[in-house]
Structure formats: C-alpha cells, structure tokens
Fold this protein.
Amino acid sequence: MPRFLHTADWQMGRTYSRFEPDDAAALAEARFTAIERLAQLARDERCDAVLVAGDVFDTQTVPDRTIRRVFNAMSGYQGPWVLLPGNHDAALAESVWTRALRLDAVADNVHLALVPGVIELPDQGMAVLAAPLTQRHTYEDLTAAFADWMTRPDLLRVGLAHGSVQGILPDTVDATNPIAADRAERARLDYLALGDWHGSKRINARTWYSGTPEPERFRNNEAGYALIVDLAGPGAEPEVSQHPVGQYPWYQLQKTLRVSSDVDQLLEELAAIPAPAVLDIRLQGDIDLHGETRLQYGLSVAEARHRSVQCDRTGLSLQPTDDDVAALQADGYLGEVITLLRERQQQGDDPQARDALAILTGLLRDRQVGAPPESAEEASS
Amino acid sequence: MKLQRVRIEQVRQFRQPLELPQLTAGLNLFYGPNESGKSTLVQAIRSAFFERHRSNGAEHLRPWGDSAAAPSIEIHFTSQRQDWQLHKSFLATKRCDLQVAGQAFSGEEAEDKLADLLGFQYASRGASQDRHWGIPGLLWVEQGSGQDIEAAAQHAGDHLQAALHSMLGEVASSGGDDLIQTVAAQRSNLLTPTGKPRGEYATLATRKAELSAGLATLEQRIGQYQAQVDRLGELRQQHQRDEHQQPWLAARQQYEEAQRRHRQVEQWQQEQQQEQQALNNHTQTLGLLREQQSQARSQVDKLEQRHQEYIRAQESLASLSAQSPQIEARLQHAQSAYSRALEKVALARQQQQHGQLADSVSQLERQIAGLSDRLAKAREHQETLEQTRQVQRQDAIDPDTLANLRQCQRQLDEASIRSNAIATRLRYHLEGNQTFTLEDTLLRGTGETLLLEETRLVIPGVGELQITPGGEDLGRLQRQLARLTDERNRQLHALAVASLAEGEQKAERQAERLRTIKTREQLLTSVAPEGIDALRAHQQTEYIRLEQLRARLAALPVASATALPLDQAETQQAEREQQLADAEQQHQRHQQSLAMATQRTQAAQQEWQQLQRELEDPKRQQLQHTLAQNIRSAEEDSSRLQAAIDLRQTRIDEARPDLLQQDMVRFKTSAEQLERAHQSRALELARLQSALETLGGEGLEELRDQQTANLERVERRYQELRRRAEALDLLLGLLQDKRQELTRRLQAPLQKHLHHYLRMLFPQASIEVDDRLIPGQMTRSGRQGQETGEVRALSFGAREQMGLISRLAYADLLQEAGRPTLIILDDTLVHSDVTRLAKMKRILFDASQRHQILLFTCHPDQWQDLGVQPRDLEAIKSQALSEVAVQSPHSTRSPTTMP
C-alpha cells in the first residue's frame, strides 16, 4: 500500500531583504539543503513517491542556476516526484517550468503537473489528481473538477492542489485560489495534499497542508516539517506523520519592559531558544542604564549563538534612574541636559530625545571607563 | 598676590644687581626717564614667570656683549596666604628654585607650580609668546599694548573660565566642553554646520534614490515580463483556437457565395445587354420598315410630279425649236459678212505693198546719188593730199636745226652788241661830201661805227689813222664772234638757206603744208571713212538692190482705186469676225439647249412612264401588304422584349450587384486578414517565446528581491543615521544652549565689575560681555543722547582706558574666585586727556584697594595725585650700586629668604 511524502512551498529563489547579506545567503542556502533533506527523508522512510503541492519556486524568473540546483537537490531520491505549480510558479505560457524543461533539468523520475489532470503512478498504486495553477490567481476552485475525473479502480486517489481552504484558515475571506474544505470527501479522494499555507496543518483526516520544509516567516506556526502519508487501502483513513526537516526555526519575541526583572525574564527566554534560530525581538517600554547594559550583553550572546538576531528597540526608551545619572557624574549643565531629555521622553514619544539621551549617556559612560570619546565614536560607527 | 621684593642681576643694562625693595600692597609707582630700565624690569619679572629656565627664549635678557652672563631674577611674593620665593637664572646658569611654605621645588616642577598658581602656560619650544601668557598676560600690560584687550582676554579665556567655574561650581560642568566637542565632531560626521547631510549620510540618500530608481525599473521590467507572459498565453490560446476553427474558411465560403451570386447577376446583366441589343435591332428594323412604307406612299405623289415635269420639258423644247431658224439666219449672215471683210483686207494689203516698194526704189536712188557725190569729193581730196605730200617731201625743213640756228644767231647778236658796247665808237659827221676810208670802207655823212680791232682810218686827205680799241675782253669777244659766226654759217648751210629769215620763211611754208595735209585727211575720212574703194563697192551693191526692187515693183499689179486703206479694212474684218463668233456661239448654245431639252423631255417621259409602270405592278402591291404586316409584327416583338428587359432590370437592381461586389471584397479581405492574423500571431508567438526565454534567464524577480533587500538595508542604515543625526543635532543644540546659559551666568559678575569701573568713567553707561568674556557693546549717554557701539570702534585713548578698566574688572573677578592677582602697568594711559586721566586715577586708586599695582612711568608729574610716593628708578639704581660695593658682586646665587 502506498506511502508517500507530502511537502510544499519550497519557495526556491527567495531572498531575505531584512537580514544582513551573509545571513540572507545562509538562509537561502538552507532551502536547498531542505530539498536534500526531503530526498533523504523519502529514501530513509522508503516512500513510494514525493508530492510537492505548489510554490516550488518563489518567482518565475529565478536564475537558470537556481532551477538546476533545485532539480539537482532532488537527485537524492530516485522514486517519482510530482511537482505542482502554485501561485508563485503558476504554469503560465512561459514559466519557470517551461524554462526547466528547456534547460533539460527535469529528471525522468520527476513529473511536472503542468496541466490539470490525472498522473497515474501504477507501480506505486496511486493516481495523482493534480490541479495546477495556470494563472497567477484564480477565484474558482480548481479542485472542483476532481470529482469528475475517473481513475483506475485499483489505484488510490490522491489530490494535489495549492490554495486556501475555505472557512478554515484565518484571513481567507475573498482569498484567491479557493479550495472547498470537503473536497476530499466530495471527490472521493483518499488524501488531498495541499500547499500554500506555510505551517503544517490538518484540515481534516484526509486533507492536510504540509507547510514549508524550511521556515521563512516569523509566524509561529508549524513550519519546517514534511508529512509522510500512509494509505492502508481504498477508503481507509490515511496515517499522517510530521517529520522535522528545517534547519533554522524562526522566532519572534515581543516584550514590554517595565521593571528590571522584565529584562531578566527576557534574557532567560532568549537563552532557552534552541540554537541556531532566526530571532526577531521587538521591545517596548522603558529601560534603565543597568538594564540596558544587561540587555546589550544578552543580545550579543544570542547573536553569537543564532543565525540572525534582530532587535527592534524603537519602542523602548532609555530611562536612566537618578542613581544612573549620579553614577555618570554628569555635573553642571550636562546634568541639566540629561534631565531635560528625560523629561521630554516622559512627556511623550520623542525618539529624538531618546536617541540623544542614549548618545549622551553612552559618551558619559565611555568617559567613565576612561575610553577617549573619539575611539568610542569610532567603535560605534 | 603681592610682590614684596624683586631683585635682578646681569639683566640687560642691569649688569649689577638691582632690587625693588619694600613693595606695598596697593599702588607702587616707579618713574624714570626713557631707557632708565623700567621696561627691562617689567621684562625680567615676566621672564621669571613665563620662560622656562632652560629656554633660549631668555636671550633678550642677556647684557650686551656678555656671552658668559647668567641673568638671574629673584622674586618674593605672597599668595594664598603663603610666602613664595622664586629664584630663576638663565643662559650661563640655568636654574629655577621655588620655596613655598617650607617646601622647596626646583626645575620644571617649580615652574609648573607657578604656572598653575598664576594661570599660564609655557611655550613647548622657543620663547614664550602672548598666547601662552594666560592671566598674567591679561593683567601685566606691556608698554603700548594697553588698548588691545581682545587677544589677551582670549588667551586668558580658559583660565578665566576655570576661575569662574570654580566660583560658580554648581552650574559648571566638568568636561562639559569636551563633551560638546565630541558631540559636535560626531554630528559633523553626519551633518554640515548648516544641518545638511554629509558623508555617508548624504551618500546613503543618493544611494537610496538610485536603488529606488533601479527597483522601479526592475519592477517595470517584471511587469512587462509578466504582461508578455500573459500575452503569450492569450496568443497561444487564440492560435490554437484558430488552428482548430480556421475562421478564414467560413469567410472564404461567404466570399464564394457572394461571388456566385455576383456571377449570376453578371449573367443577367449580360442577358440584359443582349436583349437590349435585340430590342435596339428591332427598333431599328421597325424604323426601316416604316420608312419603306412612307416611301411607297410618296411614290404615288411622285408620279404626278414626274408627269408635270415631262410636260414642262416638252414645252421648253418646243419653245427652243421655234427659235432655231432665226439663229441659223443670223449665222449665215455673219459668215458672209466675214468673207467680204477678208477680201477687202487682202486688197488693202496688196495696195500697201506696192506703195512701199515704190518708196524703197526712190529712196535707194537717192542713196546712190549721194554715194556718187561723196565718191567724187573723196577723189578730189585724195588728189590734193597727194600733191601737198609731194611738195612737203621736197621742201622739208628740220625745225630742231632751225631752233639751233635761231639760238646761234641770237648769241651772235648778243656778242655783237657787247662788242659794240666795249668797242671804240667812232661817230662821225662829215661835212659835205667828205669821206674817209675806214679800212676798206668809205664813210660819209654822219654815222657811227664801232671799232673792235686795230683799224686803219684813212682820211683822205689827211692821212691815215691807226685806231686800236682798248679793253681786255675785246680779243676774247672777237674770238667768240668769229666762232659763233662759223657756227651760224654751218647751220645755214645745213638748212640750205641763206639766212635765218629765209629759214624762217621756209619753216612757215612747211607748217602751212602740214595743216593742209591734216585738213584733207580729215575731210577724206569724213567722206569715205572706209576708204574710197569701200565706198565704190557700196555704191555698186546699192545699184544691184535698186535693180532688184525695180524688178519687184514691176511685177506687182497696179493697185485699184477702190481699195480701202489696210487698217480700216482690218478693223472691219475684226468686227465681222466678232459678229461671226457671237453668232456661232449663240448657235451653238441654242443647239446645246435644244439637245438638252430634248434629252430632258425624253428622260422625263421615261421616268414618268417607268414609275407609272412600277406603280401599276401587282408585285409591288403584294410587297406593300407584306410590309404592313412586318411592321405590326416588329412592333409586337419590341414591346415584348421591353417588358422582359424591364423585369430583368428590376431583378438585377434588387440583387444590388454593387453590394455584392463589396461583400466579395469584404469576405475576401476578412479571410485574408484572419489568415494573416493567424500567421502573424504565430510569428509573435515565436518572437515572444524567444524574448521570454532570454528574459526568464535574467532572474529579474530575484534581482528585484536583491535590490529590495539592498534598498531596505540602505534605508535602515539611512534611518539609523538620520535618527542619529537628529539626536546628535538635538543633543548638541541642548548642550550648547545650556553652555551658553552658563556663560551668560558667568558673564554677570564680570559685567558687575566692569560697570563698577565704567561708571566712574561714564556715569549711567553699561557694557555687554560676549561669550568669550570680552567686552563688546557699550552704551553711554553722549551728546546726542544714548549711544551704543563696539568698544573696538572707540578712539585709541578711550580703548586704552577701556582696556585698563576691563583688566581691573578681570582682576576683581579673579580675586573673587580666589585667584592671585597682580597688576603691572608699564607706561599706561599716555594717550588720555587730563579729565579722563583724573577719572582713571580714581579708578586705579579704587582698584589698588584690592590689588597690588605696579605702575611704571616716565611722566611722574602726571601721577602726583595718586596718593602714593613715586619712587625714582635712578635713585634705586644708585642705591643698588652702593649696595653692590658693599656685597660681593657675584653673590646673587645665594637665595635670600624673606621673612
């Protein structure tokens, strides 16, 4: 009885604008590794086939090299692959697929589901009903035709589609590429392999989103998995298991700092995140000079552990305590300026005052530790 | 700070030690003339403090020409409630010792302590300059620089500030100014002084714009790419649909249908044309038939007409025939008249010939007579001519010889005459018959003779006289005469004459003869120009002609008397001939008319009869009947054809051949267009396909994503820098504001002290102090009320006064801050008038209540009312010398401790 691997949303060729170039390159590279890992997994788990439910490529105009590398990365698994065009790589008149075919990059064991229809895999005992996107967006349910497609009775019916399941996923009102939630039942499918939702998600017993194998968003859903589906026989409920594939989990932390212990808590949370990961930290509230120093320390530790750590502190104001100011030995008019800036910060959102205060306290601290202001400036710039 | 004692040695003109002892707390006034060493003293005090003992900058202290000198200065003073003893020597002996409160310092340590106390700096190398002097530079005024407060105050700035900060400790900030500098430096990395981005910040803005533009281009290209992909899909669909449906076939069918219908219409049109032709033929035939019919009808009328014509011809023939006899008669008559005229002419011609011949005979007779006459005359002339010629031949004389004779005779005569003239003239008158003989000649009566040669005169009775004429030419003349005579005689002989006269006569006769010959020759020529023989022959010929004429005349018949003259006869004959010709012509015409009339009559008769026969022919009757029938039948055919044509035309019109033609064009073009569109779509497909293949490989979207990433990074960095720039700007502004505020607070005490002195000079006046603690604007009551102006703009004297006031105010300020103050004035206020000077003295005196003031002057009289004892420098010098005499001259090394 067939056992196959269900994956989707590889988004090959994706670039990461928000990261530093070396991080972005590593994350892009991780997506190729993910394919190799999928192939490895399929081989290890003795899968009969691999179904990719759309968005193999992030854009139509990826460089030729990317196309070749994608198909090369699949070479670890010699069984049949069925690749479905999704909204990012729709089977248009000229598409990444036609280019791949022109490049002669597609191996014989790879089936491209470029036209709606049935791909029979008799050796594997299954018929794949593919609903590729042939336009970038469509407002009709392309899987509606599944019910009319007859398949050999000895083959299990496996649907392969890309889109939003109606009424289940958040923000799917008026969504493009809709898919009826009960499609598997209505089209007598043994399993419906879906793509588009980047987290691994069960819609019903026979309908699953596999999610992307390598996370690329901070939405904390179940990304970074592949599904292995066992079909015991016609009509039997599929057995679906999640397998981690991703290298870098993406975490987003949003914290409001009010008191000193908040910083402690944040630092503990940071330390608890398994490395390597991609972190996005957004901080709000106030922080005193001491807390700031600790935060800085904790962040620098995390930066060394993880692939990328980004910390947005625009919502966080530096609020030196009176002790801080005293410790800075800001006498005379310097003290007056610090007081003024603190007041301005407290009166309302004043990023300039906040930054100015940070610079001033920084300079004063540098002066205390004895570093000449010039070298401190060089270090900071 | 109070100086108590100053001692100098080996300093310029003070080679010997000089000491200023017992300096008081307040004013100390020293006076002396120029070059008495006031300035040297002041210099020495300054050098003691400002110059490092090791410095070469003390060279100016060296006494003139003393290379081994060791200028030394010893100063005792109190400051901060402590006694200080400074001993410093330069050049040859470089040393510095300072003792304070029981502690001893030496060398640079001692010097640094002094600098710290007084607030100045040392020059790092070379002589100390005004920028190093700090507070002493402000308070110790060198000769002639009292008015220049600005530079001095600036050099003292830091020390002043420091002094003030210590005064206002709670508001000042330690290191605040450094911090401001740091912030300003950091800000200037990002912003220009006017707040415009610079450096990386500015570059980023440009880069951002570039990236945005690049991104927009990429977006556009991607948009184009996607649009082309869509177009490709659409085209491919259309192409496949067309390939399947082949819509041009339908159009082509429509075209063929239209063509078919159009051909039918064309056929109709052709038929129509043919029938129209037939109808035309019918109409033509009908016309002909109708013409035939009307012709037949007109022949009946013609018959009568012809009959009438026949009758008329007959009538005219009869009339002509009647004229014939008359015309015949006239002709005969004319003919006979003409014959008669001819006869008359012949007769007349004969008559005339006879007359003419007779005339010729008589004329010829006359000619012959003339000829005979001429012949006779010619013979006569011939004869005379021959006679004369005969004479001439015999009696001819040569005219040339005659001319020579004539010449010779004349010469002879002339010679004779000359000989007579020179000859001895012998005139004689003889009485009675007396005679004498001259030579052989007997002379008598009266006479004269010429004697040319020796002549013998014999007078009868008397004797003989021998006369010899004189003169020298006589002999030559005699010889000439003889020669000429010979010549003449020879010529006379040649001419065969006796004398010249005879010769002349003979010549005259000869001329007469020659004339006669000429005349006769001319006459002969006129009578017989061709000679006498020719004349005779002519005469003979005429004779023969005459005989012939006479013969002819005799042969002619004798003319009748009735004969008319020829011309009359000829005229008559011509008239008759004309009349005859007229008659003949008339006759001929008549004959012709008659013949024609006859023929016409016959023709008319024939035509009439023929027509009559024809009309009466039964076949013709039959033909007429058939003709009528044919006309009816043709008319019927025509109307039938017309109906058919009308019907067909309606059909043709209804079919709208023009529209059918348009349809054909339309359908044909449509088909072609559809097919062409299909083909061009295939081309576009191929083109688009290849364009997209190229574009696809460029990785446009990935490039776009990378660009976006770049842009975002640049944007992030830009925002960071912007925030930093804004923060730095804010911070710098705040710091500077606070700093300025502080300065203003520092300025207040200075201003207070300034006003204290200023109002002693100008009541109600006020002065402002700028950031650098330098007096700026002054306001005072002048002649035109309140006037405000910069201190800098005042007159030299007033600036000097203000300079002193400012220094005193600084001194007050410094004193308040617990700093040492000492005021040294070298020849100050020399440019002040009496009034001002008086006021300034009050000011100085006031200041001396708080500060020690050393005042050096060369005008002691001006400063008499200062309330202090002026001390004469010269006196001090002499005193010092006397002391030196007591002490060892080189004992200056031993420090003197002040109690």
Remarks:
- Residues 888-899 of chain B have pLDDT under 50 and may be disordered.
